[in-house]
């Protein structure tokens, strides 16, 4: 039987017939989410990424995955202002109230259209169908985890296109 979840090189493979998360909360509590997030953070740390340095400063070394997961859970039920009042350390991550969207498939197109700043991962089907000359749209130059890191650099470190 195939495992529920595999990580190979820069690809996550999820066997939905073995396990499927029905809610956001189930996803945030899943082993697969934890493994992908942890692996992504290890790659950022190894590359000495400014994103990792910022997250380490905000969340504490060794606590980034659990703190980000906690933040994601809070974002499901609370407004940003409420979260910043509850946990002042998240202010650095939440202070920019612009809406951002990151997508890679046709299903993400509507979400990308309504956000102030949208980012498309180069590896997705959507990157071949859109025009990169839009003021509020940026397509990553790299793929997979590297593309995600590039986009996070732009968002968290407030870099421009």
Care to describe what's here?
47% of the residues lie in helices and 12% in strands. The N and C termini lie far apart (45 Å). Strands 3-4-5 form a three-stranded parallel sheet. It has a two-stranded antiparallel sheet with strand order 1-2. The model has no long low-confidence stretch (mean pLDDT 79). By secondary structure, it is an alpha/beta fold.
Outline: globular
- Beta-strand portion reads 5-15%
Ends apart, CA distance between termini: 45 Å
Count helical runs: 8
Average pLDDT confidence is 79
Kindly name the structural category.
alpha/beta
Compute the number of strand runs: 5
Largest sheet: 3 strands, parallel
Which stretches are low in confidence, meaning pLDDT under 50 for 5 or more residues running? none
Strands of the widest sheet, in order across it, are: 3-4-5
What's a quick, concise take on this entry?
With 161 residues, this protein is α/β, with parallel strands linked by helices. It has helices at 24-29, 31-46, 50-59, 64-77, 80-86, 91-94, 109-114, 144-156; strands at residues 5-8, 11-14, 100-103, 117-120, 137-139.
Top keywords for this entry?
5 strands; 3-stranded parallel sheet; 12% strand; alpha/beta; globular
Secondary structure elements and their pairing?
Blueprint: E1 5-8, E2 11-14, H1 24-29, H2 31-46, H3 50-59, H4 64-77, H5 80-86, H6 91-94, E3 100-103, H7 109-114, E4 117-120, E5 137-139, H8 144-156
Parallel strand pairs: 3-4, 4-5
Antiparallel strand pairs: 1-2
């Amino acid at each position: 039987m195939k495992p529920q979840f595999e990580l190979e090189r820069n690809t996550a493979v999820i066997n939905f017939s073995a396990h499927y998360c029905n809610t956001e909360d189930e996803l945030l509590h899943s082993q697969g989410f934890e493994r992908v997030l942890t692996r992504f953070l290890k790659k950022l740390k190894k590359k000495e990424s400014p994103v990792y340095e910022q997250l380490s400063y905000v969340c504490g070394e060794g606590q980034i995955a659990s703190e980000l997961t906690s933040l994601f859970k809070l974002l499901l039920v609370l407004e940003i202002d409420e979260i910043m009042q509850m946990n002042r350390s998240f202010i650095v991550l939440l202070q920019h109230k612009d809406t951002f969207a990151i997508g890679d498939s046709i299903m993400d197109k509507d979400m990308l259209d309504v956000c102030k700043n949208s980012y498309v991962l180069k590896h997705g089907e959507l990157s071949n169908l859109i025009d990169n000359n839009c003021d509020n749209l940026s397509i990553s130059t790299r793929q997979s985890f590297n593309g995600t890191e590039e986009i996070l650099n732009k968002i968290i470190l407030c870099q421009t296109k």
